[in-house]
Amino acid sequence: MPTVNIKRDLLFEALGTTYTDEEFDNLCISYGLELDEVTSEKQMVSKEQSESKSEGASDDTIYRIDIPANRYDLLCLEGLVDALLVFQNKMELPHYKVIQSKKPLKVLVKSNTKQIRPYVVAAVLRDVTFDSARYASFIDLQDKLHQNICRKRSLVAIGTHDLDTIQGPFTYDALPPEDIKFKALNQTEVHSAAKLMDIYSTHAQLKQYLSIIKDSSVYPVITDSNGIVLSMPPIINGHHSRITLETKNIFIECTATDLKKANIVLDTILCMFSKYCSNKYTAERCEVVYPDGAVKLYPELKYRKETVNRKKVNSYLGISENLDSLSSALSSMCLKSTVLKESDVVVVEVPPTRHDIIHACDLYEDVAIAYGYNNIPKTLPKTTTVGSQLPINSLSDKIRNEIAYCGFNEVLTFSLCSKDDVSTKLRKPFDTQSTVRISNPKTLEFQVARTNILSGLLKTVSANKKMPLPMKLFEVTDVVLKDVTSGK
């Protein structure tokens, strides 16, 4: 669950109301959030690093708020404020629109990108007004998205650029590292991509992303019509097109290995910060031209319709609300709703900010949040059941007791082990047919599910050679074997 740090004074100013810590905590809880901690920048630095390094840090009160992992629209001050204001019926639902320019900016995709990062989406925010707080929130949202849905930039990498410093059409290509040379963000000299990888190998934040492209023969790069490098995703942007407080027009590009998530990320950034455009809640569309000639238009900013059946909602949640109440509850969760009494349903318009709405059950959850979980009447289950232990577990417990009575010590070993543990170290060939293998093991120690208990016992003995003899060990547990007769 991601945590966002928001300055209390900025939050209250945007909400138009001053709360006590307890009152704001209650508001968060009623919306399905949690005020995790009330702190300050100075306290955080002192706790995470040292008190000496906290000198000069701000004493402004900061709210650390836990956000559900699928609510990307709440990862910044702008989205959180809009959601809470709509929830309190203090603000109308914003409607996001796409502007189609007569000559839209183009991004030309080269065929080499298929080798490493095949997708790109793009859009423009026109006539934006930034101040220091908005700028900081803009940068922080990108970081939050990178760590969350972007999976540390492996699925999507975001690039934001001052459009007035560059010239379209833009080219998205993948070139050998030696052929990419530019002045990276906050660097003072021009370096090749290979040199930058060496420079950033010790960088506190960027070193974790290098492995995404480091072993590739080509690196992705975006350039403008004059050959100026905008970014080398997913590592670093160019210094030339950097965003500043004076930036008015922002070109946003997201390169990706997952096109769906790239669209979600682009929609989220546009919806959150289009409120600062002179033409509020609008974004300008760009054309992405692929090597086969296919042309895709982004952003999509799609609205879609879902229907909610009154009887189902009341049955699932254990409430008895009419259509108007359900519609009001959904509208307070930023889901514009209308009632169709003849069909006994509520038609819900899902905005581009709510990519977490996948199924009708997600709408039921929002009804429950708006209604208030504490307001749902408590009832006894309509059926009664008697719990009992499974026979296999009962037998296992009896065996454990008897062996322990004999003076043996029970050990608990991992259910995953290495291939060598179940083959080479037991002097037997690896059984490819009945052994369950992990497709993407994090370490060599956890490659397969154990096929026997002896391996774990022997590893325990090996790790406890200094213990006095005799070692009387046992384990009663499960092993995993594939059913070779199932044909799967």
TrEMBL record:
Catalytic reaction(s) noted: tRNA(Phe) + L-phenylalanine + ATP = L-phenylalanyl-tRNA(Phe) + AMP + diphosphate + H(+)
GO CC entries: phenylalanine-tRNA ligase complex
Pfam families, sorted: B3_4, B5, PhetRS_B1, tRNA_synthFbeta
Lineage top rank: taxon: Eukaryota
Subcellular location: Cytoplasm
Domain B5: 301-378
A GO BP annotation: phenylalanyl-tRNA aminoacylation
InterPro entries found in the cross-reference section: aa-tRNA-synth_II/BPL/LPL, B3/B4_tRNA-bd, DNA-bd_dom_put_sf, Phe-tRNA-ligase_IIc_bsu, Phe-tRNA-synth_IIc_bsu_arc_euk, Phe-tRNA_synthase-like_B3/B4, PheRS_beta_core, PhetRS_B1
Record-listed E.C. numbers: 6.1.1.20
Cofactor dependency: Mg(2+)
Subunit structure: Tetramer of two alpha and two beta subunits.
Similarity comment: Belongs to the phenylalanyl-tRNA synthetase beta subunit family. Type 2 subfamily.
Protein name: Phenylalanine--tRNA ligase beta subunit
